[in-house]
Specification:
This protein has one domain. Helices cover 20% and strands 17% of the residues. It contains eleven helices and nine strands. Strands 1, 2, 3, 4, 5, 6, 7, 8 and 9 form a nine-stranded antiparallel β-sheet that branches. The radius of gyration is 22 Å and the shape is globular. 48% of the residues are buried. InterPro entries: Dimeric_a/b-barrel (IPR011008), Dyp_perox_C (IPR048328), Dyp_perox_N (IPR048327), Dyp_peroxidase (IPR006314), EfeB/EfeN (IPR006313), TAT_signal (IPR006311).
């Protein structure tokens, strides 16, 4: 059955981005030579697939899209509450045979140093591939986590949190085990495709002989500046997707999303648990439905995301409203009804997904859908109860297929001079 990833909740992508000017008084090699006009801004936001016009004499600073930096040394790891980027990569690694706690610690130190450097727009003059030479950091984030199997591989079973127990089986699962779970997990996001790929290659090279890639997935979202004003994104079904995500300014946000500073185990303080699901959308079947039928499946208007009970996108859904015939306006099995926190004992997750398209099958069927990524303080109180309810009868079920899954413990952010996971690996 479908994941809560497809629920109509607000994603961090739609919060306005901060615009950081290029740093330093001079023109660094991380600045872009190009036009500063409106066309240049749009092309920059689109990921650099089209070249910039010839530069006038001198050089102009990077556009705001390229210049935006996300700090690495923060309380919570980057890539959780930051706005969604337009390009993403997800990877899972397994430690190599014979590699243990010592090798894992060295690897996390390398990864953390690489993340800090690339997120700041720096590069390694000796070993850099030059893939992203002309771009700024472009809101790059790297996020690291540990899977259930990591703890046995490193002799740290006593430090494995109970919240990392394997997810239960769901009736909707059609999982490819080779593309599920893993010892280590890495999330990369950026607003430029070359910047994201550059980070991907750096992470892979840093793994060296210590770990090997288990699986890797690529995703995308709407580019910054692609709409006339900030708007909630749409998924590949064409639905507005992200209206009711919990927001950081809500009083209970941290309680629902992050492990408290005095929580257990101690090394997870300020961390979170992420559920990753590859959800294939059966688009050929979905597109056979009429516009009205699609809205009934979701429970919201397709054009603007407003609930079928009336209002605009942010209007509270009236679950009891009926039409002239006495039928519920929002169907009893509508996806938006089933996934509401107040219909699930308050269960809440911060959804931060990417869409994906991995080609077209021999029969013409698109391999496309959602890389569902959700964050919560405890998946047994966040993801699991909602997914169980979806299993019992969601109108969206016939139009999606769950093909991969993973659960990872993501520790808090690294302090200056430290690396991610240091409290676990050196505690």
């Amino acid at each position: 059955m479908p994941d809560p990833s497809l629920s109509q909740t607000r994603t961090p992508e739609e919060e306005p981005r901060s615009e950081s000017p290029a740093s330093g008084p001079g023109i660094s090699r991380r600045r872009l030579l190009g036009t500063a006009g409106a066309t240049g801004l749009v092309l920059g936001a689109a990921g650099g697939a089209v070249g910039y016009a010839a530069a006038p004499s001198g050089a102009t600073p990077l556009t705001s899209v390229g210049a935006t930096k996300v700090p690495f040394h923060v309380k919570h790891q980057p890539g959780i509450t930051d706005p969604l980027q337009s390009c993403g990569h997800l990877l899972a690694f397994d430690l190599a045979p014979g590699a243990g706690r010592k090798e894992a610690a060295a690897l996390l130190r390398r990864w953390s140093d690489t993340a800090r450097r690339l997120m700041a727009g720096e590069f390694d003059a000796q070993g850099d591939s030059d893939v992203a030479r002309d771009a700024g950091p472009s809101s790059l984030t790297l996020t690291f986590g540990f899977g259930h199997s990591f703890f046995a591989r490193t002799g740290l079973e006593k430090q494995r949190p109970s919240s990392l127990d394997p997810l239960p089986a769901f009736s909707s699962d059609r999982l490819d085990r080779a593309r599920s779970e893993g010892d280590l997990w890495v999330q990369i996001g950026a607003d430029d495709a070359l910047v994201a790929f550059h980070a991907l290659r750096a992470v892979q090279k840093d793994a060296g002989a210590a770990a090997r890639v288990r699986w890797q997935m690529n995703g995308f979202n709407r580019s910054p500046g692609a709409t006339a004003r900030p708007m909630t994104t749409r998924n590949l079904m064409g639905q507005v997707d992200g209206t009711r995500n919990p927001k950081p300014d809500e009083p209970d946000f941290d309680e629902r999303i992050f492990v408290p500073e005095q929580g257990e185990p101690a090394w997870m303080a300020n961390g979170s648990y992420v559920v990753v699901r590859r959800i294939r959308m059966l688009l050929d079947d979905w597109e056979k439905l009429s516009h009205t039928e699609q809205e009934g499946v979701i429970g919201r208007r397709k054009k603007d995301g407003a609930p079928l009970s009336g209002g605009d996108e942010t209007t509270e859904m009236d679950l009891e409203k009926t039409d002239a015939r006495g039928n519920l306006v929002v169907p009893i099995n509508a996806h938006a009804r089933i996934t509401r926190p107040d219909q699930n004992g308050g269960a809440a997750m911060l959804r931060r997904p990417f869409s994906y398209h991995d080609g077209i099958d021999a029969d013409g069927t698109p391999d496309a859908g959602l890389l569902f990524i959700c964050w919560q303080a405890d998946p047994l109180r966040g993801f699991v109860p909602v997914q169980r309810k979806l299993d019992r009868g969601d109108a969206l079920t016939p139009f999606v297929r769950h093909e991969a899954s993973g659960l990872f413990a993501v520790p808090g952010g690294a302090a200056a001079g430290e690396y991610v996971g240091q409290a676990l690996l050196e505690g």
